[in-house]
Amino acid sequence: MIEYVFDLLRAQAAELWSFLAANFDPARDTLDVLLVAVGIYWLLLLIKGTRAIQILVGLGALIGLRVAADFFELLTLAWLLDNFLGPAVLIVVILFQSDIRRGLGRLGRGFFPRLSERQESQLVEEVVRAVQTLAARRIGALIVLERRTGLDDQIEAGTPLDAAVTKELLTSIFLPSSPLHDGAVLIQQGRLSYAGTILPLTLRTDLPEGVGTRHRAAVGITEETDAAVVVVSEETGAISVVMGGEMLRGLDAPRLRVVLRDALARPDEEIPEAEASASPAPTAEAGTR
Fold first, then answer.
1. Are residues 168 and 136 in the same domain?
2. How much is the pLDDT for 278?
3. pTM for this predicted structure
4. What's the CATH number where 134 sits?
5. What CA dihedral angle connects 242, 245, 248 and 252, to 10 degrees?
6. Residue 220: exposed, middle, or buried by beta-carbon count in 10 A (0-12, 13-18, 19+)?
């Protein structure tokens, strides 16, 4: 049996070598392999952490079983698997329809990543309205808006959503009864992509007195990326924006609207130093979480 397997492998290797010798083109085939590898990598990133990965493992096990049925000449099992796996493309489309739809949407947004002025204005308005409501009710919040630098590497323990940004959704996420209210909300390419994410905390010791975990997380993520972060204090309801590690505190709704519009329209800029230093720093935020 072992000799038969080795002979079969040698025959297959010789056949593959003959095929490559007759058809291999270094430039064309290298590009072909790279494109396929990138596609597979993108697909794995897309389905990572979803139910689709479990379904793929199941399909892989069935394919392996089909190969074993051929090897051991199990004709009935091979016939059943052939009939089941025959319409494989249709099976994949049915099982992964939601993942395929989400992936195509991300791919389309990747070709046109820049939001239109109208979309930016609508996004900012929804965030400002939500923050205004949360601040009035003294409900803590942490909202991260992606600019030029991708934030996928900074995400820890987040719940994927891929939803439209609305005041109602943002408000409901940060309600104390919500299981996601303790983490941060992540907005990428105009969509609410994750909720309940854990952000890296800054190690700086020169922050204003009384700032808590939310503010430290906001400073921490902006030290690593160019994101703009909105923080609502749970103790006082005070609104802050953090960019480039600098904190602009004590904002009202109109001022917050202007800061966020400037942040999204001009992603290369951070909070002006004079503006950041001139902002009020209320001492009543002691103990903010």
1. yes
2. 39
3. 0.57
4. 3.40.1700.10
5. 0
6. buried
